[in-house]
Design brief:
By secondary structure, the chain is an alpha/beta fold. It is built from 12 helices and 12 strands.
């Protein structure tokens, strides 16, 4: 018997015909079971005979009987059909995700620009709802290639702010936030708000986070550059959460979203003042790859990220800007 292993392009329907014809021992009955016609099944049987080098069914009196080779093919054909059904039904069905019973690891890359309470609240929620889930947090930095990391599986979800989010990724908008300045209580922008002009702002000494866009300058400087403007950055810090404490002890100016700044009022000797240069609001997103788009576990995680961001946004409030 010639081997069919070398013919790797065999249609799965042909395997089904092989199994049905051998099991029914009749082309006409096989055609009925396959919802086909006798001429079509006869043509497929001829193709199977050519592939296997065996007649498969032979005459015995007024009927047909399978050859020994055909009988040996019956069980492997059944297993192949069963495996194919299991494979494709698994791909098509939505697997229920039970957070409380899940024991997976998720890789989350995020900036802490949105709100200092965001990541702690997200971790607390996941621990409460899905204590078996392990979270590996990764910082965003200038050499973090969002698209490549997500495509390779090094990260499952990225949370941050972009003027133009990377293309070819799924995107969920979390919130937008007014851009303001955070300064120390004794800063001239607080004591003389009318003199806080665009010129004074640009000429001040600024503190800025290290950009986490690959080869980027940061969303504030990108917007300033688009207007033909630039500011004096005296300090660039990789630890964004420490910047408000640096602002409180200096005359440095931090330009970022109001929600982040709001958390430090009353805790540090700092004030929020308006940004005298018109800048578009900061837009925060969560990004993920097509690779994980249909994962029920990661869909659940994205829902937690969305809900935490929504719940924190009203809490920031809106205080009067000087």
């Amino acid at each position: 018997m010639a081997s069919i292993a070398g013919s790797i392009n065999i249609d799965l329907r042909l395997v089904r015909v092989l199994h049905t014809v051998i099991a029914e021992r009749s082309v006409s009955r096989a055609a009925l079971r396959l919802r086909s016609t006798q001429p079509v099944v006869s043509a497929q049987l001829r193709r199977l005979r050519a592939l296997t080098g065996d007649p498969l069914l032979v005459r015995a009196g007024r009927g047909l009987v399978p050859t020994d080779a055909a009988l040996q093919m019956l069980a492997p054909a059944q297993r192949l059909l069963d495996d194919a059904e299991a494979l494709f039904s698994a791909r098509q069905r939505t697997v229920a995700f039970a957070p409380a019973r899940s024991e997976i690891t998720v890789r989350l890359a995020a900036s802490d620009y949105l709100d200092p309470l965001f990541l702690p609240e997200l971790v607390a929620r996941v621990q409460r709802e899905a204590p078996g889930i392990r979270i590996e947090m990764q910082p965003l930095s200038g050499d973090f290639d969002v698209q490549a990391r997500l495509a390779a599986g090094d990260a499952d979800l990225v949370v941050g702010n972009w003027l133009r989010p990377p293309e070819e990724l799924h995107l969920g908008r979390l919130m937008s936030d007014e851009i303001v300045c955070l300064v120390a209580d004794e800063h001239p922008a607080v004591r003389q708000p009318r003199a806080w002009t665009a010129e004074r702002y640009l000429d001040s000494e600024h503190i800025a986070p290290a950009a986490f866009h690959l080869g980027g300058r940061g969303v504030i400087d990108e917007q300033l550059q688009a207007q033909g403007l630039s500011r004096r950055i005296a300090v660039r810090a990789a630890h964004f959460s420490l910047i408000p404490m640096m602002v409180a002890r200096t005359r440095l100016v931090l330009t970022t979203g109001r929600q982040f700044c709001q958390r430090f009022l009353g805790e540090l000797p700092v004030q929020i003042v308006r940004c005298p240069v018109p800048l578009a609001p900061m837009a925060y997103y969560q990004l993920w790859h097509e690779r994980t788009h249909r994962s029920t576990a990661l869909k659940w995680l994205r829902e937690q990220v969305r809900d935490v961001a929504r719940e924190l946004t009203p809490a920031a409030g809106r205080t009067r800007t000087r």
